[in-house]
Structure formats: C-alpha cells, structure tokens
Write a structure and sequence with these properties.
CATH architecture: Orthogonal Bundle
Radius of gyration: 13 Å
Number of strands: 5
Helix content: 40-55%
Largest sheet: 3 strands, antiparallel
Shape: globular
Strand content: 15-25%
CATH topology: Arc Repressor Mutant, subunit A
Distance between the termini: 39 Å
CATH superfamily: Winged helix-like DNA-binding domain superfamily/Winged helix DNA-binding domain
Length: 94
C-alpha cells in the first residue's frame, strides 16, 4: 500500500514540501498538545521537548519535521509566532 502524503504550506507563500501524512499528524499532535499545556513556548524548547519525547517512536529527523509542520500550522493560522520575541516563541492562534 502506498503511503499517503500531504503538501505542507509555508507562511511566506514559499513552496511547501510533500511529507508523510502519518508523520505530519504525529508532529502536529505533539505541537498542539504542547501549546495547550504551556500556552506559549520558545521554538528551541519545543524542538528539544519533541526530540526527547519522540526519539524512541519516530522514524526520521524530528527537528526537520518540527520546523516543517510548525511553518505549516502558522500558514494555516492554527499557531502564531509571538511578535517581538527573541528567541522566537509560538502559541496557539488567538
């Protein structure tokens, strides 16, 4: 059976990438659950948390998928970068 793929979006209207729908859903669920629990988080902390939490169950570069899915969720207005934060933080779109 052929693996289902989706094409991600990019908040700056750049081309998205085609990735496994299954991996997309795992990372999306991780990001959204984390943001529901923490309200806001620095991107690097989200990345660290994802690598710790998913390292034994996820096949592929967790960091690459985190940035790819994060950008897609920004483009879909589900999450947002908090303006004027350095290093940048993200939260669920209000």
């Amino acid at each position: 059976m052929k693996e289902e793929k989706i094409t991600t979006l990019h908040p700056k209207n750049k081309n998205g990438v085609r990735i496994s729908k299954l991996k997309y859903e795992v990372i999306k669920e991780f990001i959204l659950t984390t943001l529901q629990q923490q309200d806001e988080i620095q991107y690097k902390d989200l990345n660290t948390l994802a690598n710790e939490s998913l390292k034994n169950s996820f096949d592929g570069s967790i960091s690459w998928y985190i940035v790819t899915v994060k950008l897609d969720l920004e483009a879909r207005n589900i999450i947002e970068r908090i303006p004027n934060t350095s290093p940048h933080k993200i939260r669920l779109k209000r």
